[in-house]
Design goal:
single chain; about 325 residues; alpha/beta; Peroxisomal Thiolase, Chain A, domain 1; 13-stranded mixed sheet; two-stranded parallel sheet; 11 helices; 15 strands; about 35% helix; globular
């Protein structure tokens, strides 16, 4: 089998199965349209901790513990961890996964991190370097606001194009044990910068990267959008969704009939006042595992393209007036009878 496909993609030489998932979310997420799908909803967004950042670490710890428990596995059986978050130097992952004492790769792809983690984790298993790995990501509304925007106490007015950082953590166990969901391909994204400087409008910043990845993916695999039951982006929100559909149409690729966005699914923006939708490393991670993946496992869907998206900004780049580049990572997930 030819593993390198086209310019940006890989076809895995053997199936990599999603053996188990777990999702842990906060109170607002639990009150949303898919609140009943999550494994754990905590009424206290501090998760018993004394800070937002410590709470995020607790979510990662709980998510991975749940995933392992559901599969009847011990942490010692996991060969590698692939983990990341939005906080500086990935501290949520470092402190949250410390007690598992497993070899770990700390990752940062902003809100696209779960796509990066699943890509690298599946490549590791497909190459025979591990039989069991875990991919874990998280985000927290309080921690993200404090780091990237304004203190919550400031109570600033949010523009309608802004997104609401999801308080949540998703964990995935990937391995060689056969299940009904397998990862068969990967398309790695390129950093795209079309001059967006508004850090509140991340959908506009990330949509070009998602569009480029979709066009490159279809070219690499010689496929059309209709060959996928769903093309799922991570957290473009309603603003980014519209831009993405238009950019893809300009590129000769119509995704208007089968595009979904995790950020638009996880909240009811009118009732919950979350503006354009959800975002954050936890948004795509918890929504895929709890809401979309069951459609693959049941056989209702046969193939999806999962594309978490990220805005590559930092407090330093924002304060220096830099643009907000975007990134996207694509993972093909298929049904296994």
């Amino acid at each position: 089998m030819e593993m390198q496909v086209g310019a940006d993609s890989l076809q895995l030489p053997r199936p990599v199965y999603i053996m188990q998932t777990a999702s842990v979310v906060g109170k607002l997420e639990g009150e949303g349209p898919i609140g009943d799908c999550f494994d754990m909803v905590c009424a206290d967004d501090r998760f018993g901790s004394d800070s937002w950042e410590s709470a995020e670490s607790e979510m990662q710890k709980e998510a991975l513990t749940l995933a392992l428990g559901k599969e009847g596995l011990q942490a010692e059986q996991v060969r590698y961890l692939f983990a990341g978050d939005l906080l500086g130097q990935d501290i949520a992952s470092s402190f949250g996964l410390l007690d598992f004492s497993r070899p770990i790769f700390g990752l940062y792809g902003a809100c696209s991190t779960i796509g990066e983690a699943l890509s690298l984790a599946s490549m590791t298993v497909a190459a025979g370097y591990a039989d069991l790995v875990a991919a874990v990501t998280s985000s927290h509304f309080g921690g993200a606001e404090r780091q990237f925007r304004f203190p919550i106490e400031y109570a600033n007015q949010r523009p309608l194009c802004s997104t609401w950082t999801v308080t949540g953590s998703g964990a995935y166990l990937l391995g060689t044990k056969k299940t009904h969901a397998k990862i068969t391909g990967v398309t790695t994204g390129k950093i795209m910068d079309l001059g967006v400087r508004d850090a509140q409008n991340m959908g506009a910043a990330m949509a070009p990267a998602a569009a480029a990845l979709i066009l490159n993916h279809m070219k690499d695999f010689a496929r059309k959008p209709e060959e996928y039951d769903a093309i799922i982006t991570g957290d473009l929100g309603s603003v980014g969704h519209d831009i993405l559909v238009e950019l893809c149409q300009i590129g000769g690729c119509d995704i208007s009939q089968n595009h979904y966005d995790c950020g638009m699914v996880i909240f009811d923006h009118e009732k919950q006042h979350t503006c354009a939708g959800g975002s954050g490393c936890g948004c795509a991670a918890v929504t895929l595992g709890s809401y979309f993946l069951p459609r693959i496992i049941s056989g209702k869907w046969k193939r999806i393209l999962f594309i978490p998206t990220g805005a590559l900004l930092s407090p330093v780049s924002f304060n220096e007036g830099q643009n907000v580049p975007g990134i996207a990572h694509g993972v093909v997930i298929e049904y296994e009878p």
